[in-house]
């Protein structure tokens, strides 16, 4: 998947410009994006501000770490179960 050329904070700034009255076609032309991309980003980031965005990123990182920990523990449990079955 292709990485966005703008950070989430930059996207929030672009959306804020639209809220302040700049028309969507002008913003799309200025930042080199399609109107579909603009509306998709507005749907994703609607109602967020920078502090919420930063907290969201922290929570995503924690969630990723917990999923990795769970996967590692699940593998250890499966190995233990296989070892116990081999003893019987």
How would you describe this protein?
This protein is mostly helical and 88 residues long. It folds into two domains: 1-48; 49-88. It contains four helices and no strands. The chain is elongated, with a radius of gyration of 22 Å.
What's the short version?
By secondary structure, the protein is mainly alpha-helical.
Which characteristics define this entry?
mainly alpha, single chain, 0% strand, Transposase_8_domain, elongated, Transposase, DNA binding, transposase activity, Homeodomain-like_sf, 88 residues, 4 helices
Number of strands: 0
Q: Report on the biggest sheet.
A: none
SS class: mainly alpha
What is the general shape? elongated
Helix content: over 70%
Name the poorly predicted regions. Answer: none
Per DSSP, the total helix count is 4
The ordered string of helix (H) and strand (E) elements is HHHH
**Total count of domains:** 2
Mean pLDDT over the full residue set: 90
**DSSP strand content:** under 5%
Q: Over all CA atoms, what is the radius of gyration? A: 22 Å
* Amino-to-carboxy terminus distance: 47 Å
């Amino acid at each position: 998947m292709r990485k966005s050329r703008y950070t989430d904070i930059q996207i929030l700034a672009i959306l804020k410009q639209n809220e302040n009255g700049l028309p969507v076609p002008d913003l799309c032309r200025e930042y080199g994006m399609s109107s579909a991309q603009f509306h998709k980003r507005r749907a994703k980031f609607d109602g967020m501000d920078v502090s919420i965005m930063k907290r969201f990123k922290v929570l995503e990182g924690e969630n990723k770490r917990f999923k990795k920990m769970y996967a590692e523990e699940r593998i250890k449990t499966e190995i233990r179960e296989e070892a116990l079955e081999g003893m019987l």
